[in-house]
Amino acid sequence: MQAWNLYDRGTHLNLVDGRLDPTEYAKDDAKKIIEIALMCTQSPISARPTMSEVVTCDTIK
Fold first, then answer.
1. Number of alpha carbons in the 13 Å side-chain half-sphere of residue 50
2. Under 8 Å CB-to-CB from 47, ≥6 apart: which residues?
3. Which tens digit of pLDDT belongs to each residue from 5-14?
4. Ranges of each domain in the chain
């Protein structure tokens, strides 16, 4: 639930391990990965993206 709260506040980059050097990853890519992960945990299951949508990133607009 905390991850969704961070996402709702636009602060979901706080989920990235603080030990990682922020210059070694693209923040936009990290945000997209977090957003896709959250989509894949939605309830009900029917709200979750298909794997083909995940692979093409069509779930995140």
1. 3
2. none
3. 999 999 999 9
4. 25-61
